[in-house]
Amino acid sequence: MEHSQTAKEIIHLVGGEENIQSVIHCMTRLRFNLYDKEKVDRTKLEGVDGVLGTNLSGEQFQIIIGNDVPKVYKEIIANTNLKEESSNEKKDGKKNIISALFDVISGVFTPILPAIAGAGMIKGLLALADTFGWLSDTSQTYIILSALGDGAFYFLPLILAVSAARKFGSNPYIGAAIAAALLHPDLTALFAIGEPISFIGLPVTIATYSSTVIPILLAIWIASYVESWIDRVTHASLKLIVVPTLTLLIVVPVTLITVGPLGTILGDYLSVGINFLFENVGVLAMILLSGTFSVIIMTGMHYALMPIMINNITVGGFDYMIPAMFLANMGQAGAAFAVFLRSKNTKFKSLAMSTSVTALMGITEPAMYGVNVRLKKPFIAALIGGAAGGAFYGLTNVAAYILGGNAGLPGIPTFIGPDMNFGYALIGLAISFIVATVVAYLIGFEDVPQESSVTAPAEETGDKKTVSDLSGEGVVSPLTGEINPLSKVNDPTFSEGIMGQGLAIEPTEGIVVSPVSGKIVTLYRSLHAIGIKSDNGAEILIHVGIDTVQLNGKYFTKHIEEGAVVKPGDQLVSFDIEGIRSEGYELTTPIIITNSDSYEMITPIKTDGSIERGSDLMTLVAEGN
């Protein structure tokens, strides 16, 4: 690759220097902030020598380069008047307000999804037990299970307060105290009387705060500024007492008098407006939403719908948008299944089938990025399948009555409700899957050539030597956690094998150790990515999490320096799992052999299940051995 020429072509194809607001790079890709993304010629860009692919993430346009990204980046800076910036530096410009809103919503709601998903599934199972007479709704067992299911939703403001406070950078326990005050039984009883209420002479508007979303978000947002200001003007010796006391005394009354009622009214009218739209032009609304939901997910805009969905369920009792997400996922599963039926590439057929199954289970990224988007036409078929199911849902008024958290087959208790809602829901899911399968099969696609398969061979053949044979060393696991194939990584750079072959690990401990004897050739400033070259020539990338470069090193601690000589088991980096997840980032960690072309075979010791750091992970068969 001629780095200078690559850089010049990239500058031209992203719309020229005048279209570049800023550019930074991470371990594998260039990250552009552009004034007008419509000026980008993605087709030609992906054909440029040295460009492995492109990706659009929120407001950021990304060009995947691989190991040579620092060199291409330097050439871009050298050929323009752009300022060289580290991805660890915060930009002076203000973030687009829409992007900022999505970032906040994602950061607040993603960490709490397990709690409300678990509670929602319990409510679904309980509804099944009641419907089929397995359990009496007056039994003590039913009452206890009902408390399990309802608890997270009744005290939703309390859960949201902790998550929102972390996102806004304030004390989560003060946030919890604010929510607890709004939900206090004595205050609830005072509101229930129905008589006028005042606080130091100021009128307090009666409102219900249990199971609400918007009031507590507004309250914690205000609290973050109040707490920060009080903290700045208070002497260090008094902060422990003064900061929380004054924050509570200011924020809770302000919420009760103004913010809380405003948030409640806003949430109610938002739900009423959306439900009015679906009830009056339901077919059209459902077709449009179901047919475009996969695109919405790709842009990250689905996070903006999350609080509306939760508010609809907790306040109104049902929601029309969650079913659209189910249909979109079934469409992706059906399109990938069609690829399995039609593809002649045996390894890609296997990938298509496995990703179709995971999409049926509600995890669509492997099918969407690894198969359908990659082949283009199947993705269009998936959208058509979603729209077809949406037409049926619109005609039959299918709604979600339980917040299950999974928009796949495990989440179908979501549809348990009155009359034929559950039966119609199952029919609609089948329609989306079948239509997407048929359309994708009929319109066809340009198949992946046999030699383009990116899955690793299952076993060694002949008398080839592995790296272990050559040096007494193998590639061991740098992490403790659960093994996943790369196809399940929610980033096409890794899931499509663009960076090379390997595996991914979902860590259960925040410690990264060296997988080989060798040298640290790259330790990125944000500490999320480590490049190692083994003594036997294997070039290994350990990329902790997805998009964690945005954390700028927060929650990471380094234990070695770039250039250090390491052996298997040496600690490289440690990280705070809960802290990273609280910011809304995935921790799935790809371990990639970036010079995969140098090996005839890359064989995982196992492809699923748990693994301890230091355990054998994979072996490499070098060419000519």
From TrEMBL:
InterPro entries given in the database record: Dup_hybrid_motif, Glu_permease_IIB, PTrfase_EIIB_Cys, PTS_EIIA_1_perm, PTS_EIIC, PTS_EIIC_1, PTS_IIABC_b_glu, PTS_IIB_1
PTS EIIB type-1 domain boundaries: 4-86
Keywords from the UniProt entry: Cell membrane, Kinase, Membrane, Phosphotransferase system, Sugar transport, Transferase, Transmembrane, Transmembrane helix, Transport
Gene Ontology cellular-component terms listed: plasma membrane
Active-site residue list: C26 (phosphocysteine intermediate)
One GO term of the biological process aspect: phosphoenolpyruvate-dependent sugar phosphotransferase system
Pfam families in the record: PTS_EIIA_1, PTS_EIIB, PTS_EIIC
Gene3D superfamilies, alphabetized: Glucose Permease (Domain IIA), Glucose permease domain IIB
Subcellular location: Cell membrane
Gene Ontology molecular functions: kinase activity; protein-N(PI)-phosphohistidine-sugar phosphotransferase activity; protein-phosphocysteine-trehalose phosphotransferase system transporter activity
Domain of life, per lineage: Bacteria
Main location group: membrane
PTS EIIA type-1 domain location: 491-595
The PTS EIIC type-1 domain, residue ranges: 103-461
Keyword Cell cycle: no
Membrane-spanning parts: 100-122, 142-161, 173-194, 206-226, 238-263, 283-305, 317-339, 351-372, 379-402, 422-443
Protein name as annotated: PTS glucose transporter subunit IIA
Species per Swiss-Prot/TrEMBL record: Salipaludibacillus agaradhaerens
